[in-house]
Amino acid sequence: MLSLSHPAAASAAPRHHRAPRCAAASFRRRASHIAASAILLPGGGSTGGRGGDRKLPFTPPPMAPPGQLYRPYHPPPSPLPANYRTLDLTQRLEVLRDRMGQWHEYAPLISALSRDGFTPSSIEEATGISGVEQNCLVVASQVRDSLISETAAFPPDLLSYFDSYSGPELLYELRFLNARQRADAAKHAIDYRLEPKGVRELARSMKDFPRRRGVDDGWGEFDGASPGDCLAFARFRQSREAINVEDRIAELERALQVVATDPARARVELEMERARKKAAGEEVEEEEDDAVARPAVNVVRLQYGEVAEATTVLLLPVVRETDGVAAMESAPRRTKTDVDLGIVEVDKAWARWAVVPGWGPVAAAAEEAVVVELADGRRLPWRTAEEEPVLVIANRGQKEVAEQGLYVLEKEGRLVVERGKKLAEQGITTAAAEVLIVVRPPRDEDDMISDEEWD
């Protein structure tokens, strides 16, 4: 209930008398400006009026300590070090202009000036520090602070290495790495006395290394937690892209200078041996050619409506790459097929199925065929594979490894696809299944290039 109070209402005529028409109109005009003096509460109560018996809880305001003013707003902590907080504006500009102290000590002054309304050009005019150098100092100071954090676990006694004049440029190149990577990269930069260009190469190699999984051959032999291995892998990749054999050998020698783990060193040395044989005119089996070219297996891309338009289709069980060989072997097998009516019987129930056109190689092995679902096509053993989900149709009845084939096997609990040649080199003679066809998902026609677009 909303109660209103107004002096005119208290002096109104008694309730048994009717007010004149003009007085009632005047009262309505005055009442239109009356403000609510109560708050509605559940159950009909209110905070105002005689009938209101329920009140809102009252919380007294906090009291300030004796001798201090109460400030409900607390400003953010000052970015300035304690020794600079008492300086006025002129003194702060003088510190920057004369470079008083270490660079990481006066670098926070730039951020403080920006908060006070200074622009990079006005700071440059007052101090002589260019906008590019200002950004380098501020970012390098933040990187240095991250090295001191508990997450980085960087030895404090090594921080003095970056107190030199080139220290900001070195730390600036580590800005894209996380705290742990920054600490590892900073240690590597100190051990090898790297210049800013070398630190930039190191940081880029560490940032790029996880993206190369399943894309470049030899990735598994390098340790992504080691800055040396990341840098060695980047140079290893550059050697494979070199046209001249001399350039290739030079990049491999640079990779051997920084490689840290034994498997990675063995991989680089093997590549070095092949490069030197090629430089001497000897015949060398180019492994990188195998990594680029597709093996002798059909790789098809489905078209929209292809399954519906196919004269025959196949219903095949599907397993994920994370299910392992046990799940692939337990997938149902076809026991009987009614050709006229298209009825298929299997030996056990199964949850996931795929419908594919009745391609010849798959139809010939339909009783033992199974589909392995790969979430990323780049896990296929050739470099031209794209980042897209693919279906690998394999024949579980063919397990003997041949060098020309492509096979499915289990590694570390995952189903992977490997070349028969590589398995033979490793002494593996049997696999879980032989790959029949690799199926790629449909693609919008707008993304496809027609033959007429090529000159």
In short:
This protein has helices at residues 7-10, 21-31, 89-98, 103-115, 120-127, 131-148, 167-172, 179-191, 196-208, 227-241, 245-258, 262-279, 287-292, 306-309, 324-330, 360-364, 420-425; strands spanning 298-301, 313-320, 334-338, 343-346, 353-357, 369-374, 390-395, 406-411, 414-419, 433-440. By secondary structure, it is α+β, with helices and mostly antiparallel strands.
Describe the 3D structure.
This protein folds into three domains: 125 residues, Arc Repressor Mutant, subunit A; 64 residues; 150 residues, Umud Fragment, subunit A (Ribbon). The strands form two sheets. Strands 1, 2, 5, 6, 7, 8, 9 and 10 form an eight-stranded mixed β-sheet that branches. Helix 8 packs across helix 9. The protein is an alpha+beta fold. The longest helix is centred in the N-terminal third of the chain and has 18 residues. The chain contains 17 helices and ten strands.
